[in-house]
Amino acid sequence: MHDVVRRRVLVTGIGVESCAGGTPDALWDALSAGRPAISALELEQPLPCQVGGVVEGFDPREHMSVQQVRRTSRFQQLLFAAAMKARADAGLRTAPGALFVGTGGGGLDEAARLVTTLRHSGWSQMNRLGLLRLLPNQAAGLVAQELDITGPVLTLSTACASSTDAIGAGLRAVRDGTADVVLVGGVESWLDLPCLASFCLLDALSQRPAAEAARASRPFDRDRDGMVPAEGAAVLVLESERSALRRGATVHGEVLGAATTCDAHHPVAPRADGTVAARTIELACADAGLDPAAVDLVSAHGTSTPLNDRAETAAIKRAFGSHARHMAITAPKSVIGHACGACGILESVGVLLAMREKYVPPTANLDNPDPDCDLDYTPLVGRSAPINVAVKQNFGFGGQNSAVVFGTA
Fold it and tell me: Long-range contacts: 58-61, Cβ < 8 Å, 24+?
């Protein structure tokens, strides 16, 4: 029987694989210092995009068997590693009740390899497990098999809002009593030639040269010229307060509310006035039972693209009214790039750590603020501040909007 009183949902575990490092502390070191973890990409063919956020030194054999490594692709391995780290951090000894994973493209890089082999060597030479290495749901399936998760195991694909939506799904599962403990995560591995070339054709990626890698991602700066692609994964353990207290779990924060909407406007461009994105933020705050004026920090989507940054500024102004000019805003993609379907969960880790450290991370490379982006985006230098309530918002192709509200536990 479900609890009559709405249950509190706590974050009790964190696992990370990012271009800034493989631990929450490494990620926080980069974010808090405003130190970009972006480097030159090694590509088989030259592209206008030359820089990205690579998860360096990742060895899946540290987390899975040799047989599992052989059967899986990079996006599956990244998620698996993050999930095992989150489980260990939470000290879980029983199977979670559910798993929700967000990803934009899944194994698109594997699909490209299969097509290349088919054209050059014939179908019989294709990887026999190729299909299983590319299907988006297989990363979640791999984790479910390892941890014996027999409840809901769902993969959400809402572009750059995917893993933020996964957090929302996990929140509702725990709050509504579907499960006491769930894993929520996101993963993206899209630094392959076909994916990057496709984004280049949309003029979506920064064209700064490799020598300027650290300065390429410039959210809300007038000299921004596009997204900086990045790969990575993160997983959070969400747990009911009752379960966390019973286990004596360490609590990293609380998920207070979430919401998702759709612009219903354009395949890649946001509504310029930010009306629907603003409503997403308002709905998330309402779901948390909070007035938007209670928010201390907004972790912006901040893609470093001309249209999105202006539309997001408009959305923040609409959602928060006069409070928009009195709260802190930070843009983590200036440091860790754009991990597409994984960006929301990676940036949510940053939010949880900012709340723990009572520190607003800076927006790197914000040297010359765009006059149309005239809010306090914490340019270049972070600052100490009490952060009791924070909003993480992400927006994706197809008009996908998602927001999550976090609080201190």
Answer: 58/17, 58/22
Q: Which of 247, 272, 298 is the last residue of a domain?
A: 247
Share of the chain above pLDDT 70, in %: 99
218 has pLDDT over 50: yes
2 lies in some domain: no
Given 19, 49, 63, 160, the catalytic residue = 160
Mark whether 60 and 205 lie in a shared domain.
yes
Active-site residue, 301 included:
yes
Helix (H) or strand (E) holding 80: helix 74-90
End-to-end alpha-carbon separation of the chain, Å?
26
Per-residue pLDDT tens over the stretch 224-278: 999 999 999 999 999 999 999 999 999 999 999 999 999 999 999 999 999 999 9
- Domain CATH for 98: 3.40.47.10
Nearest CA to 394 among 303, 301, 320, 264? 301
Domain boundary among 192, 227, 247: 247
When the pLDDT of each residue in the chain is averaged and rounded to a whole number, the result is 96
- The pLDDT, as a whole number, for residue 3 is 44
Residues in CB range of 63: below 8 A, 6 or more apart: 77, 80, 81, 84, 85
Give the integer Cα–Cα distance in Å for 276 and 13: 32
Three-class secondary structure of residue 1 per DSSP = coil
Number of domains into which the chain is organized: 2
Do 262 and 242 sit in the same domain of this protein?
A: no
Q: 63 catalytic, yes or no?
A: no
Sign of the alpha-carbon dihedral angle for 278, 281, 284, 288:
negative
Backbone angles phi and psi of 371, in degrees to 5: -55, -25
Is residue 329 within a helix (H) or strand (E), and if so which, with residue range?
strand 328-330
- What percent of the chain is modeled with pLDDT above 90? 92
Q: Find the domain containing 286 and state its range.
A: 257-407
Q: Are residues 240 and 292 in the same domain?
A: no
Q: Does position 4 have pLDDT exceeding 60, yes or no? A: no
Radius of gyration of the chain from Cα atoms? Answer: 20
**Residues 334 and 287 reside in one and the same domain:** yes
Q: Looking at 338, 340, 343, 373, which residue is catalytic?
A: 338
Catalytic site residue from 49, 301, 343, 373:
301
Q: Is 338 a catalytic residue?
A: yes
Residue at 316 is within a domain: yes
